[in-house]
Amino acid sequence: MKFEQHLSQQQKQVQKLAMTQQLQQSIQILQYNSEELFAFIEAKSLENPLIDIQTETNYGDFPSSSNRTYTNEENNYLNQIPDSHTSLFEYLIDQIHLNYRDTYLRTLVLFLVESIDLNGYLMIDLEEATLKTGATAIEMLDALTLIQQLDPAGVGARDLRECLLLQVERDDSAPELAYIVIEEEFDHLANRKWGLIAKKFDVTLSEIQTIFDYIQTLTPAPGSIFESTAGLYIRPDLTLRIKENQLTVISNKTGTPSIQFQQAYFERMEATDDKEVQEYIKEKRNEFEWLEKTIIQRGDTILRVGTEIVQRQQEFFFKEDRPLKPMTLREIAEALDIHESTVSRTVNGKYLETEFGIFELRSFFSHGLSNDNTGEETSTSSIKKQLQDLVNNENKAKPFSDQKLVDLLKEQEIDISRRTVTKYREDLGIPASSKRKRYDA
Fold first, then answer.
1. Does residue 228 surpass a pLDDT of 80?
2. Which of 208, 233, 338, 410 sits at a 20 to 30 Å CA gap from 438?
């Protein structure tokens, strides 16, 4: 068999987008939230001597403390600044040094404290602790008992059951049988096999219901109150103004970084005869111009997308029940003539400040289900709200099954399957009907 190789030349024109490093960074900057953007600019300023960072500190409508007395607790912005708490570990150490004498037992207590996690649970087995310290089992148990007497109640527990028992033990207002029910029948109580518990202790189901309700007031993670609140502050990117039924979206400049060009430094460095310095300074000038342009484009894109969202969801801002219309990323992209992925990057981690709260732009998007009778679409958020209302108003002694919820929603011209109702119910954190049943209703 004979093989032949033929060579030929062809001219072909192909258009494609080259993902340069600057283009990749521009896309990344759009995706950054305010804190990430500031960190990026700060890093750039360390590399580029021509970048000077300035932060807007004008708080606009916020009154100064010098000319206003706060009488409304809700509007007292000073009270909304989080306190800096000590950690759980530091809090326990302070109590140990304050309450317990310097003995060998206290040494064991300090050893065990190092194995308590952020939720307040002991993460080391006592048998392992005895091997590491050389203490006896009784000494180690005594050390744990001392820890469990500290605040917060429940600290030092080895599991959820022990954590709840430690809290009940200190609470004089706890139901009479709460401690023994948790101690002996915790699994049956959690799995709502209350008939067995009622029969064993010769009490009514209503009394078991009271114990169960009381347990809901206890904390499963006593150490969580010491978690840091430093990362909980949100800096909104946009602010919504409502005046005479008109909605206006503006960029929120407060606290956002801006950059300025170090003109004097640039001129001084450009005047040098060193060619390398001149090339370096021109490169850094180009980098500054690119960064400035990218930041402006980012702000403009967020404002355009935010304004389009607000215009499409006007009922949310005017009506008290905050209804959302079905809206997708593609609809916003087509309206603004931008790519759908651009909208996705824009709405993630970007927030809109209103008079009644701060909302992530992403939260305004909701798919819809077509209504066969009206031909209109109902957003999934609206369906979930109606589902929540049905559950809130049900007879707690006879809660609605998922199929009954399907039938009730159908009466409201919402035709969805039982599987969808189950999914929405779980999304809302609503237990199944068997776990919603109450015996004191």
1. no
2. 410
